[in-house]
Design goal:
SH3 type barrels; Fumarylacetoacetate hydrolase, domain 2
Length: 251
């Protein structure tokens, strides 16, 4: 199923796609304790929100071999973790804002994993049972600030630096999905999730050994080669096979 959050007539709802319509639900989506409200609206008539409200967004760095090579960095022996604040979240269609203090802001197409139930010390063999679904993410990064700081918090944390959506797709195997990023219709990144150094189950297990993952939390699984700069006036799109497209203008 395709789960999403949306605004209609000034109110916010959870719901799921039924063709080109959305059926609104009330209750707890991640636990399955929800029911239809009877509200049905065309997808074209709503404003999408980010599809979940995480307590934390966990980024994974250098998880594609070709991206590590283009950054002139060695492949890590275990996942490299960083955090993005929930205040960086941005829904599909809304603008990425370029901060004045950054000279270079880059796109990074990523498969995003959404946690479905609390996970602590989860073995990789059991990790799929803690995943609610998958969505598209864009780990927008102020590259010059990242290089200047020698750590990643400031570069990754500006408001609007985590586009996410447009919805969460359940029951989709993350092992070998095509991932493409375009800027103004031109392909800049093109890879497959099978080229990740650490797979989705490994990442869930690894992060759950550090912190408790809660329903709605997001793991950004890393970006492939081809990173590059965004400019005001651009339109950036992340497309992942089986999920859909996440498009944002850049201001």
């Amino acid at each position: 199923m395709h789960w999403l959050r949306f605004q209609h007539n000034g109110e916010q709802f959870d719901g799921y796609l039924d063709g080109e319509r959305i059926k609104a639900v009330s209750g707890e989506v991640f636990s399955g304790r929800c029911r239809e409200t009877g509200l049905v609206v065309p997808l074209a008539e709503v404003s999408l929100d980010t599809p979940c409200r995480p307590t934390k967004i966990i980024g994974i760095g250098l998880n594609y071999r070709d991206h590590a090579a283009e950054m002139n960095l060695p492949l890590p022996k275990e996942p490299v973790m960083f955090l993005k604040p929930p205040s960086s979240l941005l829904a599909a269609g809304r603008p990425v804002l370029l901060p004045e203090i950054a000279r270079r802001v880059d796109y990074e197409a990523e498969l995003a994993v959404v946690i479905g139930k609390a996970a602590w010390q989860v073995p990789a063999s059991e990790a799929p049972g803690f995943i609610f679904g998958l969505t598209c993410g864009n780990d927008v990064t102020a590259r010059d600030l990242q290089q200047a700081d020698q750590q990643w918090t400031r570069a990754k944390s500006f408001d609007t630096f985590c586009p996410l959506g447009p919805w969460i797709v359940t029951e989709l195997d993350p092992a070998d999905l095509e991932i493409v990023l375009t800027v103004n219709g031109q392909v800049r990144q093109h890879s497959r999730t099978s080229r990740m150094q650490f797979g989705v189950a490994e990442l869930v297990a690894f992060t759950s050994r550090v912190m408790t993952l809660l329903p709605g939390d997001v793991i950004l699984t890393g970006t492939p080669a081809g990173i590059g700069q965004l400019h005001s006036g651009d339109a950036v799109t992340v497309r992942i096979l089986g999920i859909g497209e996440l498009t944002n203008p850049v201001f």
